[in-house]
Amino acid sequence: MPLILPGYGVGVPVDRLTQARRLDAEDPLAAFRDEFVIAEPDLVYLDGNSLGRLPKATRERLHAAIDQEWGVDLVRGWDRWIGLAREVGDLLAGGVVEAAPGEVVLGDSTSVNLYKLAVAACDARPGRRVVVTDDDNFPTDRYVLEGVAAARGMTLRVIPSGLDTGVTLAAVRDALDDDVALVSLSHVAYRSGAIADLPGITAAVHEAGALMLWDLCHSAGAVPAPLRSAGVDLAVGCTYKHLNGGPGAPAFLYVRQDLQAELRQPIWGWFGQRDQFAMGPAYDPAPSVDRFLVGTPPVLGGYGARCGIELSAAAGIERIFAKGTALGDFAIELYDEWLAPHGFTLASPRSGRGAHVTLHHPAAWQISQALRDASVIPDYRTPDRLRLGFAPLYTRFEEVHEGFQRLRTIMEAESWLRFSANRSRVT
């Protein structure tokens, strides 16, 4: 039986369309959909976990920033822009992840932030020669960690994780010894949506004397991230998925308060300098999370990130998580009834998921193209997986019903057969 959450009676055996409409009518977050640009009402958008929709407030804020702040204020705009990275970081700390003001800062990309924190962590554990990650961690994480280890003569120890079930505490424990400097994993698995045991894994890593670095890209804005209560050392995340910051929006990083003075990141830029405008001859890192900044922050991207983050903070991460879980439960019920008979298998956990559900089918690529042709935007992931993302701030239960109804029609009519199996482009 699916998890039944307050305000979302998923699991009630009624007509599915009637059920979807009732769930939408009872949805405490329903009003947030009106905060987003919905340009194609017939489009079923199930890829908000790759790129979130455009908030109306972002469009207005960027127009004002371009016309007034850049167009009129010119360089005088730096009077307000200079602190944007910390301001947005504090907003994230208070409204999206469990952290204190001064522990989160906005800037750079997830990959760059991961590199900075991974190097800093390895430097903080001299004499230890191993970095641990898992074989289904997001590719950029694995590549960055591989490069960090190679450059330092360290070993990257890659542990097995289930494609559909994620990394386990037991697998992490098996990889730990007194030679491990750093463990870096994703909180929510990008392929299956499985949620890792963040508190348990962090505690095990600390018992081994190593540092823990979490990737929050698929959890920030979708799943609670108990960084402070779990004693997490380091984390990175992006703002263009569930936080709706826009394409290429800057990422963020988290460093636990008591670690900040101990760690020194490898890219010594002037925004990380203690007295930035003294233009001194030597690098002296700021005594705060600012030491993890590098160069000039992306102002327009920062405004986009802030507008999206403000919506998530207003909705509340617990309510967002509850709706995301309910949307996924509803989707799994439809899968059980409508899609399992057509050769699909569930490639996500039935519980303990982020805000997406993944289905496996040998013809997933062709089916994804047929869905696009039917005005449904999913995401394809190897091997042969159809990833369906639900953005709780704007995805309706009736949309999920409609998307799965169109998918069922495609399977019944076998219309996916007219699409080539040649995956010449990435979706």
UniProtKB/TrEMBL annotation:
<protein>
    <recommendedName>
        <fullName>Kynureninase</fullName>
        <ecNumber>3.7.1.3</ecNumber>
    </recommendedName>
</protein>
<dbReference type="InterPro" id="IPR015422">
    <property type="entry name" value="PyrdxlP-dep_Trfase_small"/>
</dbReference>
<keyword id="KW-0378">Hydrolase</keyword>
<comment type="pathway">
    <text>Cofactor biosynthesis; NAD(+) biosynthesis; quinolinate from L-kynurenine: step 2/3.</text>
</comment>
<dbReference type="InterPro" id="IPR015424">
    <property type="entry name" value="PyrdxlP-dep_Trfase"/>
</dbReference>
<comment type="function">
    <text>Catalyzes the cleavage of L-kynurenine (L-Kyn) and L-3-hydroxykynurenine (L-3OHKyn) into anthranilic acid (AA) and 3-hydroxyanthranilic acid (3-OHAA), respectively.</text>
</comment>
<comment type="pathway">
    <text>Amino-acid degradation; L-kynurenine degradation; L-alanine and anthranilate from L-kynurenine: step 1/1.</text>
</comment>
<dbReference type="InterPro" id="IPR015421">
    <property type="entry name" value="PyrdxlP-dep_Trfase_major"/>
</dbReference>
<comment type="similarity">
    <text>Belongs to the kynureninase family.</text>
</comment>
<dbReference type="Pfam" id="PF22580">
    <property type="entry name" value="KYNU_C"/>
</dbReference>
<keyword id="KW-0662">Pyridine nucleotide biosynthesis</keyword>
<comment type="subunit">
    <text>Homodimer.</text>
</comment>
<dbReference type="InterPro" id="IPR010111">
    <property type="entry name" value="Kynureninase"/>
</dbReference>
<keyword id="KW-0663">Pyridoxal phosphate</keyword>
